[in-house]
Amino acid sequence: MKRKIIAAAIFVFVVVIMMVIFFNIGYGQPDKDTAQEKLVVVSPHPAPFIIPLINEFESETGIKVKALQCGTSKALELIKSNADIDVLWGGSILSVGESEGAFLPYKTENIDSFYENFKDVGEGFTCFTDVPSVLMINTDLIGDIEVKGYEDLLNPRLKGKIAFADPSGSSSSFEHLTNMLYAMGNGNPEDGWDYVEKFSDQLNGVILQSSSEVYEGVSSGKFLVGLTFEEAALTMINQDKHIKIVYMEEGILSTPDGVYINKNTKHADSAKKFVDFMTAYNTQKYITAKLGRRSVRRDVEASVLVTPKEELNIVEADRDVVGSSKNKWLSRFSDMMGGANE
To answer: What's the gap between Cα 164 and its chain centre?
Structure first.
């Protein structure tokens, strides 16, 4: 039995390595020789999301892509310091907002098909998908603990059993921090800090390092509830994990993530084709049908697996306020965690 387990583990490891090599999914800094030959895209998206879209882009355009996976903050560092990276694919416009000057101004050829509120969000920003923040519940373990929104996370029975990633490195966690401040502050983020302080105490000193640790931690049973984004929870459900999505009754921040071209790109034409492909009708239709995301296009219907947006209690955040306050908010949250997320 032990030999079979070891053999199975080796097989899985080899398959994963082959996938990484075959699909050019990498981590960290791009190889300079590779960067000269390929469009280099850095992204916080998970590999199952990246692979089919990159594969189709290469097939349709003939442009080869080198994809690097990392969190949004790390991706921004790479964009700002390495001219061999061409595109940042992912990261909410709230998280990326302060870095607008790092991107090449470009309006996709598909812009006329966007919802109005996704058309003009910044000179170097192109909206990619609409991403609501949600709570993710492990239905096998939650028992009779009721969770309908943020207030329920203060239940003493949940202390130490809540998955939340470092908002200074995770775009989805920063979205949730912003969501809490606006929803629990009744539209005034400064009034939301009383709640955030109570929430931080509920984490019991545990702060995760990536968005993936949140949804994987809940689906594996390490945590009872996690603060994540809609697509991640849907992915777990599609993998037959015993997961439930909760749309916070106090209000939901639904912010688009984007596709951003490095202003120092050496492959501007290819980068623009990448942006156009990712916002094209067929791509956006595939994303909603197969990958659990909401489209930014008016002509693409949402997945039947998600709650219609008009039925959600949507809260709005002031982009200028969020952009100018981001570092202050992150520092304040870190202080509440005792510096655990520094």
So the answer is: 13
Q: Is the pLDDT of residue 182 over 60?
A: yes
pLDDT digits (tens, 9 = 90+) for 277-292: 999 999 999 999 988 8
Residues facing 103 on adjacent strands: 262
Burial 149-161 (b: 16+ CB within 10 A, else e): bbbbbebeebeeb
CA–CA separation, 129 and 127 (whole Å): 6
Torsion over CA: 124, 93, 30, 107 (sign): negative
Q: Tokens standing for 73?
A: 């903050």
The pTM is what? Answer: 0.81
DSSP labels, 291-337:
S-PEESBTTSPPPTTS--GGGS-EE---HHHHHHHHHHHHHHHHHHT
C-alpha pair distances (Å), 266 with each of 41, 90, 123, 257: 13, 20, 19, 24
pLDDT in tens, 111-165: 999 999 999 888 899 999 999 999 999 999 999 999 999 999 999 999 999 999 9
